[in-house]
């Protein structure tokens, strides 16, 4: 399923922009027949700007550049070079990436285009293949219940991880305990901490984000676009100021990549995280409200229509919350394992498990940590 690795170095900026256009084209998929246009402007080299037209394939056009387009993206040449240097690990939620780009117009087209220019590493591909073989051998697609462990030892956790089987841990006593947290307390304690960066011009502190959440709860809306228009931090980096209260509860801090914050208010019929899988084992601590996780074993890959362009995590085209069996007919045979996570509980999701997450209660907060190994 891998697509060719892109080049990492170019003779000059003009070659890098051309390579960027080709990167988008080779990573583009459009199974749902989306139609639209995106103007991509490189401010240092405006003559190299182009329009990406969505068709069955992605068409790159450089004529009539003054015409109206659905979406406009301004991306510095330095960020384009960085995309090539970091395609295996590039995270669009990184303030140093998303904070350099300007978006206007229909943001769903920008989101679609962003997916097309990242690539999985050979290591990630091998992890997913290994998980698929193990899950098939152990018959995990037929699991009907998830295992619970009360206050386990670290050795018990390691043994469970080696089996690649999901696990919920209960009896945790973080300090302060999860029951003591609220939106007001978060705003009071971390008001100046930056919790979300969505573009070169939009950064939000905790205090500002909490105010947005309260406004959303007073006047909710359904038009949500991942990464852009959603009252949810979607795995933004946990601010350093919050580590002391929400750092990992097991092992050492160095055993995990930097934790992520999942804070917001999302209606139950819209997933907080759409169906995807991760190449690293994830630890998800539930802090405020409850979440429901729907899990699918790695050996069901052919039923879930995963995207070919991805790196840190692999999204799926199939959407369980709005199933379209005409476009994705194999998905009707997929088997799901569901679990509800309560405040103070932690779920371990071994690498390769597909999962989709819903907020049963709003507001909702979780913190995730990915095991490095």
From TrEMBL:
SUPFAM superfamilies recorded: Clavaminate synthase-like (SSF51197)
Record-annotated JmjC domain positions: 227-373
A Pfam family matched in the record: Cupin_8
Protein name: Cupin-like domain-containing protein
Species name: Roseinatronobacter alkalisoli
Phylogenetic lineage: Bacteria, Pseudomonadati, Pseudomonadota, Alphaproteobacteria, Rhodobacterales
């Amino acid at each position: 399923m891998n697509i060719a690795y892109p080049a990492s170095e170019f003779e000059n900026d003009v070659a890098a922009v051309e390579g960027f256009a080709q990167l988008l084209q080779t990573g583009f998929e459009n199974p749902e027949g989306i139609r639209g246009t995106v103007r991509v402007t490189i401010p240092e080299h405006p003559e190299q700007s182009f329009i990406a037209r969505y068709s069955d394939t992605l068409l790159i056009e450089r004529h009539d550049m003054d015409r109206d387009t659905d979406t406009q993206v301004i991306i510095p040449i330095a960020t384009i070079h960085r995309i090539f240097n970091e395609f295996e690990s590039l995270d669009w939620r990184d303030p140093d990436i998303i904070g350099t780009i300007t978006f206007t117009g229909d943001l769903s087209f920008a989101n679609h285009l962003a997916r097309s220019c990242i690539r999985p590493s050979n290591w990630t591909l091998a992890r997913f293949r290994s998980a698929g073989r193990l899950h098939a051998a152990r018959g995990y697609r037929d699991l009907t219940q998830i295992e619970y462990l009360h206050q386990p030892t670290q050795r018990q956790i390691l043994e469970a991880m080696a089996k690649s089987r999901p696990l919920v841990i209960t009896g945790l006593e973080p300090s302060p305990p999860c029951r003591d947290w609220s939106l007001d307390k978060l705003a009071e304690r971390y008001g100046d901490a930056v919790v979300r960066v969505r573009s070169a011009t939009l950064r939000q502190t905790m205090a500002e984000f909490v105010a947005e959440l309260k406004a959303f709860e007073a006047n909710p809306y359904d038009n949500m676009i991942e990464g852009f228009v959603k009252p949810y931090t979607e795995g933004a980096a946990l601010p350093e100021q919050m580590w002391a209260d929400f750092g990992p509860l097991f092992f050492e801090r160095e055993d995990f990549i930097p934790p992520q914050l999942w804070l917001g208010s999302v209606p139950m019929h819209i997933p907080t995280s759409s169906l995807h899988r991760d190449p690293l084992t994830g630890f998800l601590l539930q802090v405020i409200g409850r979440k429901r996780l729907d899990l699918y074993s790695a050996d069901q890959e052919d039923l879930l229509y995963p995207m070919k362009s991805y790196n840190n995590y692999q999204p799926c085209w199939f959407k369980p919350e709005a199933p379209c069996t005409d476009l994705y007919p194999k998905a009707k045979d997929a088997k799901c394992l569901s679990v509800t996570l309560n405040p103070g509980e932690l779920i371990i999701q071994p690498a390769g498990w597909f999962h989709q997450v819903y907020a049963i209660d709003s507001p909702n907060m979780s913190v995730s940590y990915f095991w490095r190994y």
